[in-house]
């Protein structure tokens, strides 16, 4: 059938756009300090067990992962030190801003994290807090602490890379 044209790509409907927006990853908080202070060995995505006011506060885009860590206790993973501020319109049912929160992981993942975190120099830190498909998720990482010279070397490498990119962009424009 020579001469037949392929149908033109159609525009997504409003419902399709709404579904795509709902499925998109909406980042609430990132822990940039963790990537600076630790070598990231392995990452996991975990669900969070939250109360209603915590979810509402997160949807407003407010949270801090800077002082957070994960602890394995009796076969359960718990997120400590993460600050989710109180919901402004909440009543007496409001949550505690720094309470420990249960992480939802598979049993095998919890066991793997428990074994690795017992090794010297290893810890579990949260990297990112986000919503995907309407569910609150946290990306956690099995990490090893960096020495001070490691941190300086990483900063130096980033600066060298930035300078190289700048030189290349200046050269392109000449």
Major sheet strand order: 1-6-7-2-5-4-3
- The share of residues in extended strands comes to 25-35%
Specify the structural class.
Answer: alpha+beta
The number of E-state strands comes to 7
Largest sheet at a glance?
7 strands, antiparallel
Gyration radius over CA: 22 Å
How far is the N terminus from the C terminus? Answer: 51 Å
Total number of helices = 5
Portion of residues within helices: 25-40%
Regions with pLDDT < 50 over 5+ consecutive residues? Answer: none
Name the average pLDDT.
82
**Outline type:** extended
- H/E element sequence: HEHEHEEEHEEH
Keyword list:
seven-stranded antiparallel β-sheet; alpha+beta; 5 helices; 35% helix
Question: Can you give a write-up of this model?
Answer:
The protein is of the alpha+beta class. It has five helices and seven strands, in the order αβαβαβββαββα. It has a seven-stranded antiparallel beta sheet.
């Amino acid at each position: 059938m020579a001469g037949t044209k392929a149908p033109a790509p159609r525009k997504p409907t409003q419902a399709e756009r709404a579904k795509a927006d709902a499925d998109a990853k909406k980042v609430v908080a990132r822990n940039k300090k963790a990537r600076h202070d630790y070598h990231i060995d392995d990452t996991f995505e975990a669900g969070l067990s939250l109360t209603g006011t915590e979810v509402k506060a997160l949807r407003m885009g407010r949270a801090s992962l800077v002082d957070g860590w994960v602890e394995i206790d009796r076969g359960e993973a718990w997120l400590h030190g993460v600050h989710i501020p109180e919901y402004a319109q909440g009543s007496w049912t409001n949550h505690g801003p720094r309470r420990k929160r249960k992480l939802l992981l598979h049993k095998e993942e919890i066991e793997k994290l428990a074994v690795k975190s017992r090794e010297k120099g290893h810890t579990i830190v949260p990297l990112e807090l986000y919503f995907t498909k309407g569910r609150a998720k946290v990306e956690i990482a099995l990490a090893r602490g960096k020495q001070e010279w490691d941190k300086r070397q990483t900063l130096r490498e980033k600066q060298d890379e930035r300078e190289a990119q700048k030189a290349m962009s200046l050269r392109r424009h000449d």
